[in-house]
Amino acid sequence: MTWEDMKVKYPEDRGDMSKEREKEFVNDCFSCYESEGFAKKFWSPFGDYKDRESQSFEVVERCSTEKQDLSTLPMWNIKFEDGAIIGAYPEEIIPREMKNNGCTLENID
Questions:
Q1: What pTM does this model have?
Q2: pLDDT score recorded for residue 74
Q3: DSSP for 35-99?
């Protein structure tokens, strides 16, 4: 699955999808992002976790609807070197998304 495939498979707006279709969409988003690869450093355009910017992390797992609302996914739980675990959005850990949202950190990918 590529992002171009996603446009064909899901031509409608996410808000117009049934719950089941949105779950399928989110799963495909996870796959597309994971195929791109994760950043080496954390960064956030949202103002949260500013003290974590530039820190290394490891991806622990995909977030699920057990603890997150479907509308907030895709997100991943990430773990920092000090053991802290947070939920992270693509804009915070996927290099292309980070750069598209203003990240100026170097050596993120």
A1: 0.94
A2: 98
A3: HH---SS---SSSTTGGGTT--EEEEEE--TTTS-GGG-S-EEEEETTS-EEEE-HHHH-HHHHH
